[in-house]
Amino acid sequence: MKKIVVLIVDYKKNHQFFYENLINKFSGENTVDLIICNGLDFDEKLRYNATLHVKTEKESLFSFMKLKKNLFAKSDLIISEELYSFHFSVLLLVVRYGFKSIQVVHNANKFLNRKLEVNSRSFIAFVFFKIIKIRVKGILVISQTVKEYILKNKLFDNQVYYIPFNDTDLGYIAKDNSQGRIKFTIPGTVNSERRDYKMFLKVFLKIIKEYPSFELNLCLLGKIIKIDKEERDLISEIQKLDFESISFWNEFIENEIFHKEVVKTSFLIGNININYTENNVKEVYGKSKETGVLFLMLKYNKPTLFPKEYNYSELYENHIIPYANKEEDLYNCMVKLIKSPRELSKINNIKHNTYVNAEINNIKTAFLSVKN
């Protein structure tokens, strides 16, 4: 039985599914120790099939990591979540045990393709990530397109592996949406600075005006953070025509409600702005970074609308419906889906899951095989 350590320095609640999926892929025939360095409440602890080690508020990161040195030394594989802050003790760990370490990367350009800048914080980040990049034996990404981007641009010299953000083998079967209310869902917090809602609201309003016999619902599945007056007016106008044709929330949505709404969904919508910049580092969704809509698409086995410029792997082509970033094209696309439901029973994750299982076996062969 091999020993795996999963290290999470900057724990994020919205990454729970990923931590859980990652641990489940390797537990069973192996023992897994989960080390969390910034606290965790009791309910969350119950999610993970691993031995937990959680730093208390009174402990310093350096002393906490020092206490766990035997775990790292005796481990066969260390998987470290992408770092969002810089810690000397973590750097020392990577320098010493990089030969048996895999680094999770969510933002490929930030971690692997960062440019050297003159300000001190950027310089520290550049050096910090450069050392980790040189020392670790492998990179793990949560999207096949991000893996392809890293390989194509030769951003990393060792192995790159792909494991999805959440488990996709959950038994959800895509259903024919020819009966009942057809539901289009835009998941995630509603912020018009990050996504284009206006075009969808305009097109949806036009459809329910021209086809009043259609039973439709547009679901904005996330707390409304920021929308402009025109968008609010469009929501109000849709409500006046048919109150049940639009759903939205002014508060954060509980996981159970979110789950139920996605299960009832006919089509997901990934209305993302393709280009994204943070701390002067440019990322591109579908290339160097991935959207959470893709993970919901795979988890719940849902056909999903994405902009035509969104780059996606052939592993996902079963599910994705591309649309041009024009009202007329989006209108035609949605009306066609409503009038002629796709043969959704053919949408499945078989090809994708076969590939992921091969990736898991590659990691086990590289790090966990018995050495004579």
Shape label: elongated
Text of the CATH class of the largest domain: Alpha Beta
Q: How would a crystallographer describe the biggest sheet?
A: 7 strands, parallel
Mean pLDDT: 86
Order of helices and strands: EHEHEHHEHEHHEHEEEHEHEHEEEHEEHH
Largest beta sheet: strand ordering: 3-2-1-4-5-6-7
- Provide the structure class: alpha/beta
The total tally of domains equals 2
What is the second-level CATH architecture of the largest domain? 3-Layer(aba) Sandwich
List how many beta strands DSSP finds. Answer: 16
**Fourth CATH level, the homologous superfamily of the largest domain:** Glycogen Phosphorylase B
Give the low-pLDDT segments.
Answer: none
Calculate the terminal CA-CA distance, rounded to whole Å.
Answer: 15 Å
Q: What kind of oligomer do you see?
A: single chain
> What is the helical fraction, as a range of percent?
25-40%
Estimate the strand proportion.
15-25%
How many helices?
Answer: 14
CATH fold descriptor of the largest domain:
Rossmann fold
Radius of gyration: 22 Å
